[in-house]
Amino acid sequence: AAASERVVCLTWKRPHMTWRGSAVAALIVLGSASFVRSEEPTVADIVSNLRQAEAVAASLNFCVDLQQESWYRSEDQNDGFRPNRTADVWWEMRADGSRRCEAVARITSVGEAGERREYTQYELAVFGKPRGLARSATWTMQESGPRQLTDRSGSSPIGWNYYPLELIGLSQRANVSDLLMKSGAHVIDKTFLDGRAVYILQTNPRELNRCSSYQRIWLDAERSTMLRQQSYSKSSTEHAWHLDRQISYKQFEHYSNGVLWLPRHVHIWDYYESDAGQHVKHGETHLALGRWQAVAELLDERFDVDFESVEGKGGQEPICLNGS
């Protein structure tokens, strides 16, 4: 009788639990599907949010002080990294895309015979609107006395001074949203940072001069900011993909009521593929940016430099160093 009662009890409870379990499971499935549809952004959604941040950046005039430290090792050096540049760079950037750069750099170079040379270099450059040419003047101070170098044209005469807005993907001529749309980027993974979704996007490979390359970008979807950027390449179909460069962005501060988030630290690693196919780091740069300053106006006089007069200073510090 006891056994019979137990069987009856089990056969009565089981259908009841199955019905409730099925109902709850159905609700969970439906809820999960609804969550995915409503919460997971498409690449088009991500790009749309990025363009809002880019539009805000394009409407502002910025000034920022940048401290740069770089270490470099050539492919035939096996004795570790050598510091080759420390610099204090002052940037003034206008909403129309024009910009002004002044820098004092301490540079170390090593010749083919291993001789070491150190010198101080002063630089001043004024760039036109987004795709305009630049004018620049450069003075080099060495042990033998001042030596003046001048480069008056070109899109980037002072190539080692990183343009801040372009570096973080917010310049008018190079922004992240255009890169993602033109390259057919797609989401390959998702992670979280401080509770915010971070999407990892990968561009489609493109070929140039028989080399193929693609990029991976880590994007904070809520803040519309890049957290990391990686560039990969290979020289032929027989070779494997290798990492060329990695850039990480940290310590963000918000501007324009939180619409725009800008980094205070940028770290850059450069790599090359050795003849043996090894992945070797040959350069590292750390950029510490002072507080970004959004200013109402940057006067035309700051961008209309009399370079003939500046060149005559021969070895002296540039005019208005660090914005003073």
Quick structural gist:
22% of the residues lie in helices and 44% in strands.
What features would you highlight for this structure?
single chain, 324 residues, 15-stranded antiparallel β-sheet, 22% helix, globular, disordered C terminus
Give structural notes.
The longest helix has 38 residues. It contains 5 helices and 15 strands. A hairpin with a 2-residue loop joins strand 9 and strand 10. It is α+β, with helices and mostly antiparallel strands. It has a 15-stranded antiparallel beta sheet that branches. It is globular. The N and C termini lie far apart (99 Å). It is 22% helix and 44% strand.
Largest sheet: 15 strands, antiparallel
Instruction: Please state roughly what percent of the residues sit in beta strands, choosing from under 5%, 5-15%, 15-25%, 25-35%, 35-45% or over 45%.
Output: 35-45%
Number of helices: 5
Estimate the global geometry from the Cα principal axes. globular
- Secondary structural class: alpha+beta
| Helical proportion, percent range | 10-25%
What is the H/E order?
Answer: HHEEEEEEHHEEEEEEEEEH
Give me the Rg, rounded: 27 Å
**Average pLDDT level:** 75
Overall number of strands: 15
Please report the distance between the alpha carbons of the first and last residues.
99 Å
Low-confidence blocks of residues: 1-20, 23-37, 149-159, 311-324
Topology:
Elements: H1 2-39, H2 43-58, E1 61-72, E2 82-93, E3 99-110, E4 116-127, E5 134-142, E6 145-149, H3 164-167, H4 176-182, E7 186-193, E8 196-202, E9 206-208, E10 211-220, E11 225-234, E12 242-255, E13 260-273, E14 279-289, E15 293-295, H5 307-311
Antiparallel strand pairs: 1-2, 1-14, 1-15, 2-3, 3-4, 4-5, 5-6, 7-8, 8-10, 9-10, 10-11, 11-12, 12-13, 13-14
